[in-house]
Amino acid sequence: MMIPSRARAPLFAAILLAPICWRSAVAAPPSASPAPLLLQEKSEKETLADARAALTAKDPQKAADLITAFLTRAVGTVDLEDVLGQALLQLGRKDEAAHHFELALKLVGDVEAPQKALKANLLRADPLYTRRSALMLNITKNLLENCQKLYETGHTERALSILTSLEPIASGAIKKSIVELATKIRAAKEAVNLDASGSDASSEGARPLVKLEGKHYHFESYLDQNETQRVSDVMDDIFNYYVQIYFDNDATRVNSQKPTIRILATHDDMMKEWPGEQRPGLGGWWSPSEWKVTCYDTGSESGSRDQMLMTLYHEASHNFMTMLAKGGNVPAWINEGTASFFEGATAMSDRKVLWPEAADGRLRALQYQLTGGRGPTVAEVLSFNEPGSYPGEYYSYGWGLVYFLQQYEDPVTLEYVFRPLYSTYRETIARTGAEPMELFKQTFLVPSAPGGAMELDAWVARWRNWILNEVYPLNHEGARRRDLRVDKAKMYIAAADKAKAEKTPKVPELELLTRALGHLEFIRKTIDGEDKIDPDLVVLQADVLERMGRPQGTAAVLEEVLDKADRGDTTLEPERYEELEKRLTKLDTKNQPLRLAKTRARNFANQAIKLMEQYQASETPMTLTSYEVSTLFADALDSKPLKEQAETLRLKARDAGLLHGALYRIGGRPSAWVTIFDNTEDKFDPGEGVLSIGGVRPVGRIFNAIPLSGEYELRCKLGRVGEISRTTSQGVVFSGTPTAQWFVAAIDGRGQLVVRRYEKGGSELGVKVDKLASLVAKDESPDFSVHVYADDRIVIKVGARPPVELKLEEPLPKTAYIGVFAKNGRTELSGTVLEVFP
Q1: Domain positions in the chain
Q2: Secondary structure of 504-572 as H, E, C letters
Q3: CATH topology of domain 5-127+618-664
Q4: Which of 97, 249, 448, 468 is least surrounded by CB atoms within 10 angstroms?
Q5: 321-351 pLDDT per residue, tens
Q6: Mean pLDDT throughout 745-773?
Q7: Rounded distance between C-alpha atoms, residue 446 and residue 198, angstroms
């Protein structure tokens, strides 16, 4: 078995330089004497010789103590882990012994010769080893076959995801095949990205520029290729709604020039291209002179791109108003109100866009204004006729007016009775530039208009009542809103049944089904939420989609629900699961290999859960081993129940003192060492044996290959080289980032401990001095460690002196790195080890 880095330290995303080594607690019982400090100075060869001699002398506790002491300052090797496992096995500590035999096997890799003895010992420690190895073999063999079929049917991303998860539990020929297929997919993917990307780069330099030609838009995007394609598909679909509303479905009126949609990586990147005054809340803009929409990836801030899509829906609609106006002016309530109307659009799983719902932010603002007597009057909004946009408080009113004109239904026929008048008003105002309020009266306040309101106050009262008593409850009336929407959906489905039987229905069947679908999707995504699944609602939604002639949409809904069940995010009865899966298979034969892979993974996860239960039910519960094995299975199968089980076992193992941290040897790879200091440093040497840096002014480097969060400890032997003066300071960076302040622990020229903060450039921000029990002599090279806790506490140990505990006044970065520091001298760190606690 091989312990993946994700299982041990899930915070790490980078490729690490040194082997990872979990250490179990092997401290001597109270009756035994602790290993003397002198033993820590011995080499690996000497430690192994002494430990083996202890085993021969029938003293396994001494052997365990010797190797445990050595591993506090070094990373484990095959021989160290093997001998420690043998000692623990003789002590009857089978769970911990199995852990160390596993580590030895991981370090051996696929070299067969040394595996036999290690596996024999592992089987003595873990009687279930053969069973779980057989399950791992079955998993990797079957899912590899699925990945090959996924690759052949074009599901390359999913195949690569599964292959990456399988590699840590695979071995031998199967592992070789997994690596070969994954390499082939990555190579093809890189070739596509290179072809699709330009040379431009964001300010972060982290993402390439993707250029893509969609059906209706040209994209310049810092999203990846797949996400850019998804946005392109969504914008192509909403394009049809633009044509419907602005040009009454006459696509011949659309300008042949494709607009450009430019998606920047961050808000700061976007604002560098904004030509006006700085506006922190700006989400994007339409530039008629450039024929371009500019926005940014809101996922860089919130983790969600929904806000970015809403901005695109709004700004891209201005392109149509530009075409409609042909250089003329249109009143802001029509221009911004129509653009805001599209903010309520929703992209479904099949990348089709639903006709816009109420834009929730606009609706909430409007309800607040209408019920509190705030904001402008409708007359003021309708009369606003200045170039450009109108004040911010007008936007909700403009949206509400357009939403009413688009969405108000005749109570009997369900027709959208105001849409023809909206179209007439919009066309006339764009063509003639008429005074907006006067034209409104001529269009809407006439006897032939729906409702026959002759005065603006009466019309506004009707509008206000509809917004507050019909629209707002559908979004904000607590639990009632779900019932209201279910009733609406069923009403539309019944009306669609009736329309299907009529030769010339007032509202076509497809239109009524589309309205029902909007309510069902809102319930499923917004009210119930992503994790709650109502199977009856899903089946109803699938029925509507299938009836609309959207098999891909039906498949996407079923696929999403089954995926959640596969991961354990929701629960489906076996009969219901089988029903939905069979229905999906009939709809989407192309995705059959994908479903088979997910079904197999789900079944394997159930087998793994049962195996973990057997571990816990054994005479000697294997808490540490079962934690590590369940983590392997959870990662390989992407199973939420297994992940929850692994987390429970992790806490039990740590509470029992069985689980310590993952060890990393620090050093090497010069490109991974960065600085915030502008000061000139002496030669920097990132050697794995001795890590050194020197300078007159403050200098330092951090190792950015290992991002850290939570609890960790940096240990080393601190060498203070050269002449030591009053201003000398030599130590470590225990928390720092390439762009923010650094936290340094060091010994100053007097031999006292200091903790300092430095900002980018090298200026000192603050210093804290704590009295050590005794000063560090100039010729002393003490063992030095800094233990960092998640609550911004640190514990520093210098040699054999009592530890110093500090509570930092400034919060540490959420993700940070460690490194080396010097001021007016040279620092040499030897045996530098980082331990990250699970």
Answers
A1: 5-127+618-664, 135-196, 202-327, 331-476, 530-601, 666-836
A2: CCCCCHHHHHHHHHHHHHHHHHHHCCCCCCCHHHHHHHHHHHHHCCCHHHHHHHHHHHHHHHHHCCCCC
A3: 1.25.40
A4: 448
A5: 999 888 777 899 998 999 999 998 888 877 7
A6: 87
A7: 57
